Amino acid sequence: MHISASQLKLVNEQVQRLVASGNYFGRRLQEAGVTEVLTEEDFLALPFSEKEDLRNCYPLGVSAVDEREIVRIHSSSGTTGTPVIIPYTARDVDDWAEQFRRCYELAGITAQDRIQITPGYGLWTAGIGFQAGAEKLGAMVIPMGPGNTEKQLQFMVDLQTTVIGATSSYALLLAEEIERRGMRDQIALTKGVVGSERWGKKMRDRVKAGLGIKIYDIYGLTEVYGPGIGISCDAEDGMHYWDDYLYIEIVDPETGEPLPDGEWGEIVITTLVKEGAPLIRFRTHDLSRIIPVACPCGCAFPRIDALQGRSDDMVKIHGVNVFPRQIEEILQSFPALSSEYQIRLSHLEGRDTMRIYVETDGTQDFLDTADAVAAEVKRRIGFTPLVKVVELGVLPRSEKKTKRVFDERYE
After folding, report:
1. Mean pLDDT of the chain
2. Secondary structure of 312-376 in the HEC alphabet?
3. Strand 191-195 to 214-221 pairing
4. What is the pTM of this model?
5. What homologous superfamily does CATH list for 89-311?
6. CATH 3.30.300.30 is right for the domain spanning 314-407
């Protein structure tokens, strides 16, 4: 995706605003001698920004506006280290709601729908993003927030909710609960807007079947508005994103060099009109690619592919680089295994070991399945893990994001 003349003009305006504000990023641009961005070469010479920069800005050093213009702050989910705080102006809040409204619209959701929102509210951007977009659309909002599954199901039945907003983990938990109680004929769900974590085909199919819905993947991150900057469509082939608000490039995670459309790499986002905390060439660590062909759905906005994981979730074991998605792809090739798994890395007697816990439907022998999975990991990736096959429902379900990789080697 080459940057267009109109996008370049907006980037140039953002750079001018940052420099004039004298905030953390403005000072960095000044130090780098950047005064204007007139060509694509100028743009590609701009320095990257990282989450670490945002931590260095704590609490409000990222703000590019007068404090009186800030109407809200959000903070990214994360349990360790200095929090990342992002300030929003009234225009930012409205722009974000407009992007989310477009997401609902692309998913065929209308003002006639009843949208039950289960992600968390508060500092996290999820719940309030789902809500603002739904209100702009004119739909009825049921702002449940996370947890209290009993009440979620009651409202789903009594209010005949048609759309659910959820993390994939909680969507799975609800699907399993509805199946367990035999409630499918009591609910009116038709669609799910699901986000916050990468998830495989097997988990997606279980949620679709369990809730009887079509699923749309929502994309976003707190640093860049929040969820709603992109969504999948009925073609189920990648996610459209709003290139009048964002410029997305894909770079090599190792070198930072831009990659051509169609090649996999790290998503880097530049906000084109954001006021409170404009970001230039922000490295997300999310791995995807730009899909270079027009979408069969007819939507003209560009697409990125479904996320393949994160460049920073790679682990090294026995000198081999392993991404959780590689393990996930192997597990998906075994029909008797469920979508749920856990990877635990430990250091025992002088060597690293990987243990994989995975659930099965019980149609095949546990030990034989474990041996077959271990052999397939060895064949495809190059080392032999310890595999433990457990019964369906043994691994924890989450109301938020499911943690799948536990590195206990250095604890």
Report:
1. 92
2. HHCEEECCEEECHHHHHHHHHCCCCEEEEEEEEEEEECCEEEEEEEEEECCCCCHHHHHHHHHHH
3. parallel
4. 0.83
5. ANL, N-terminal domain (3.40.50.12780)
6. yes
